[in-house]
Write a structure and sequence with these properties.
116 residues, globular
Amino acid sequence: MQVVDRAEELGLVGDLSPWGRRLMTVFAHFAYGAGMGMFFGLLRRERGGPGEEASVGSALGVLAWGAGWASWLPLTGVHKAPWTQKTPKVLLPVIDHAVFGAAWGLLYRALRRGRA
């Protein structure tokens, strides 16, 4: 919600209903993640087995989270930097992004298998 709050403060979006705010928040979050995932996927030259793809996806999921939370989100005033947060508040997103990245790594492997 912080990204949507900041976009409203800057006048980039009009008044949104609670449902519209939630929808925009979810869309922005997944669009950023999908965009980072596509970018990282394009950098891959070789593919591996399920374990390797899940591991790489997990690492890249955490990297995508860390890149946003430690750089552009604090710089734009959307969120505080992770090192200023309490451990449980930082730990849960790390785990979420690791699991989500692993799932997308396996999906990437499945989609690329048809092109071989």
